[in-house]
Amino acid sequence: QVQLAESGGGLVQPGGSLRLSCTASGTSPGGWYRQAAGKQRELVAEFTTIGTTKYADSVKGRFTISRDNAKNTVYLQMNNLKPEDTAVYYCYGRNFGIDYWGTGTLVSVSS
Prior knowledge:
This protein has no helices and 11 strands. It has 111 residues and is mainly β. The chain has strands at residues 3-7, 10-12, 18-25, 29-35, 42-47, 53-55, 63-68, 73-78, 87-95, 98-101, 105-109.
């Protein structure tokens, strides 16, 4: 059974930082997407099939994706957060072309 569990979301002021975690079983977590209210889900950061990293232009230089293979966990360090980063953040894992998703963790950036 595939399971992914995100944690680390919360309320933070603009300019602040948060670190999200995603621990998986049955798959290897590949990256992060987010979905703001009324908008489509969008890529935030992920590991490519060749092991490099890919970021949305809007988060480059502010967010960093990393992973601990021994713990089957990926992280998203988010610095200099902006109100437009407010969204539910989801991690995903992919097995044989099928994507699996966690339930998400809410990040709210507001003063």
